[in-house]
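Feature request, filed as a ticket because there's no other form

It would be nice if the structure record came with a short human-readable summary line next to the tokens. Right now we just get the raw output. Example of a typical job, pasted below so the devs can see what we mean:
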Amino acid sequence: MKVLTNKMLKKMYKRKTDNRMHSFGDTDIDKKVIRINKKKAKKQGTKGEILDSIVHEAYHAKHPKAHEKTTRKKTKKIIERLNKKQKRSYYRLF
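Raw output as currently delivered:
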């Protein structure tokens, strides 16, 4: 149940912040691009929504055929296991 490490994510995918998109995030497997809407995530409440979006899209990148429901469950478990240092490193990606 590992998500892409930050090093792998940096090498394999371009990362963009796109505050104009309608969803929280998007992973384009073909173009190797992960986009996050930080503005929308912040409106939902805490910084945790941004982290959730980043980890969620990273999971999609590693497991492109996983169902959305499975991805949400796995994302929640991954975030619960991250320490503060790991969380900060995910925030720094975007």
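Something like this underneath would help us a lot:
The chain has a mean pLDDT of 86.
The two ends are 22 Å apart (CA to CA).
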